[in-house]
Amino acid sequence: MQIFDIPTLKSLLKPSLNWLLVFLPVAVVLRVWPQLGNETALFICSCFAVVPLAGWMGRATEELAEHLGHGIGGLLNATFGNAAELIIALTALSKGLTGVVKASITGSIIGNVLLVMGGSILAGGLKFREQRFNKTAARASTTTLTLAALALAIPTIFHVSAAGPSGGWTQATEQKLSLAIAVVLFVTYACVLGFELITHKQLYASDSQDGEGRKEASGWSVSKSLLVLTVATSLVALMSEFLVGAVEAARSALGLTEVFVGVIVIAVIGNAAEHSTAVMMAMKNKMGLSLGIAVGSSLQIALFVAPVLVFFSYLFGRPMDLEFTLPEVVAVIVAVHLIFQISGDGETNWLEGVQLLSLYLILGILFFYLPERAHTG
Amino acid sequence: MQIFDIPTLKSLLKPSLNWLLVFLPVAVVLRVWPQLGNETALFICSCFAVVPLAGWMGRATEELAEHLGHGIGGLLNATFGNAAELIIALTALSKGLTGVVKASITGSIIGNVLLVMGGSILAGGLKFREQRFNKTAARASTTTLTLAALALAIPTIFHVSAAGPSGGWTQATEQKLSLAIAVVLFVTYACVLGFELITHKQLYASDSQDGEGRKEASGWSVSKSLLVLTVATSLVALMSEFLVGAVEAARSALGLTEVFVGVIVIAVIGNAAEHSTAVMMAMKNKMGLSLGIAVGSSLQIALFVAPVLVFFSYLFGRPMDLEFTLPEVVAVIVAVHLIFQISGDGETNWLEGVQLLSLYLILGILFFYLPERAHTG
Amino acid sequence: MQIFDIPTLKSLLKPSLNWLLVFLPVAVVLRVWPQLGNETALFICSCFAVVPLAGWMGRATEELAEHLGHGIGGLLNATFGNAAELIIALTALSKGLTGVVKASITGSIIGNVLLVMGGSILAGGLKFREQRFNKTAARASTTTLTLAALALAIPTIFHVSAAGPSGGWTQATEQKLSLAIAVVLFVTYACVLGFELITHKQLYASDSQDGEGRKEASGWSVSKSLLVLTVATSLVALMSEFLVGAVEAARSALGLTEVFVGVIVIAVIGNAAEHSTAVMMAMKNKMGLSLGIAVGSSLQIALFVAPVLVFFSYLFGRPMDLEFTLPEVVAVIVAVHLIFQISGDGETNWLEGVQLLSLYLILGILFFYLPERAHTG
Hints:
Chain A has 18 helices and two strands.
């Protein structure tokens, strides 16, 4: 297929991601002849195969957005930018794995904010003494992220407060509360899009100008973009089936908890493509764009993906609430607080990358040691 | 009476508030002939009647302050600015409704910071692309507010830590702790006044210059100011009697919890006048003044009204502590954090108003669903 | 001894600290003839005697650092700046007093950030209307401090989450978690030193230039520095023996809890020397240096002393975890948050000093009223 053959700039810059496509046929083989491998191998192979596919989905979405103009194109990017995560989560949700789904929401936020952003700031900071970006745009994003982090903490606070013999906590109230919060977050996301794409698009314009490196030279046609999008999405859906089908067996084989798999493993896979792009942008001293990718992706997860998952859970007849475990809530809040503190002055240096990565490591250690049933309060 | 007859600029600008005076006689009628209505109607009517009266009290205080010069006048404003809330709270305290009183303290802070400020920033932001104000003055206020929010969380942390079989928590220690914190907050308030009115008054001077819109054309005489103040205060006291007397019956009739009534209902009523002034200032692009009203009112509640209520509770022989429910503590801290984050850069836009209002909505939802006895821990 | 005889500038500026050396022989006498006094008197005398000795240790370290050049000298300062605290803590650790040791870690952080910094800002602010300092350097320090505060909260969050019948919490996991976090903090400290001493030393250079007041006129020789360092360190070790030996008896005689003694008493003693230097610098309008001393000392405690104590605890065969009581965790986080908020704009005024001191007072009240066994959860 022409798309994969021609060595584009992107494929040369990050060869590792496309090479991972080799795991796609391996995963199919493992699934068709189960006697060949085991569930753990299938899980790992489909995990690896999702990474480049998510990258192709993102690429195709951006190329398509290019043709649709700033407004609609921006909306497309804003809604389908995390489509791979959404597909995996919906597949898991349809199988009733709400624990993993919820953990992957918090994990995506933490991963983008600490791992992707920390890695980008460190990589950029090793090349440049100081990197600057638009302070107001960064503040708008991190403040919305703060709001989202606080909103996602509310159901847990509700549970802790209303639990106990005289508390009067019920599952039904928890779900109503979560649904109402999901609606508020969804509406807030619409406002954020209005701000970024309509009323204050100039704040982000300087980034787009910077952003020429992002759209790259190629310039795909609409039909090519649609074809790649369709193929990559179908393959991501297939891999999600494999991945979700094998996750429980793989978990117990590897001795990992549900929260650890959701927060660390699934989140890292789903965001690998963003990670590689954000780091590249940082190394080109386009810090505003790098921050936009990482924080924007977190925002999308919190304000769009999470509410959509709640809405879909009602369609599947298995209502999902937004109550997270206490460590997840704490992790999201502290991660968002640190990125606010670091990005608030409009400049970064390598030490700030180290600080974000240190926190990611510390939270990873916490989730690693956390026993299986260690839920709220 | 001349005061209400002449259509001043103010009355033309916010006709809705003065029109609410119609509820004053209705409330009196409902109280005198109980067979006519019910407690819920009385509660609602006296609630509405308080709104314009509080506005007149505030107006009269400001006019009086004008005659007394900057120093003493500022002190007057600073101590009587929330007199309506104080009267309602003292009435409730004398009847032993400490739950409602405490909830109205946290509700006033949250309401001013999120609802009043969010509404002002949104209203102003829809007219002006960006609104600027003195960063240093804003930081001084929000930092003091942060301190107050943390201080008000301490008794709850004490309870959570010291509770349990081996904890050694006692009601008496809780009260001593609360009293000591109230004293520290009161002394801090004196320092804040010294900063604002004496040592750093220049920071606030640019606002006052702006603030000509606030004092308006009228220029009441001292005797007129005193007369209005006396009449309005007496009527607020009367309405408070009605309101507090009917609150329990109205609560159960409407199916609302004590915390919801205190945090949302009472707080909205007591701050309606500030709300309307702050929004007007924002729409005139006097953001510094708008912020000063909303954040200043929160500060007054936390550093002056709350300690005074604790002191008076000893006079009434029903010592009130400063232990709040966990959701209240969380709500105050997150509200204060968001306003700090938003005001820290000395400029606002409409999205920041939406963010504050979203958080208010989310907290309102939390308090609405929270069952009655869902207290700390 | 010549060192103590010649009235240097320093000794004239802070005579009070050196006068405390009189408690050194008193403590020895009390220890040798136990019938003369009691344990409480011994505890108090050795406490007072440590204060000037810690000052001499710090002075000698700085003089030595002067001879070793910027890089190695900075490293020396960074590792031995809190040697007195480290000696006291190691002595207490070897006797199994882990409660006091852990409380002294959090107490040192809180004390430096709130008491030392608050006192300095207030003292400086009473002389100067506004004091400015390098914003970027301050942000780098306070962000690292935020990271450290969050890291130190993780084991407590782990305990709260994993406790309970189905939680699966074990002491061994807690220790492994703490050890892993200690390693991450230690590595982060190495990065911070690399930032401050190598890659971004210019940020701190303006402070050093300012800092001529710090190195003072004297210019000790290497041998004199080493002699003073050796003598002062030995005497601190001796006083630590006395102090730690008497602490339990003194505690019960004075009716103070373990946490109060660790958080307030030990922390104040260990940081008295920093306090006096930081206040002096602030009064000379060298706010950057003052902030550097107080925040730098906190950083050293959190990122160097705490991990080293964990490592040594394994040598002593009594593994110490990093789980603190809930009030300690809250106190550290709120203290660090307030200093971040105050120092974020690169300028201070007297009110900000009052705010920090108010919070210290409020936390002191909390720890004073907290009953003995009021630990996490």
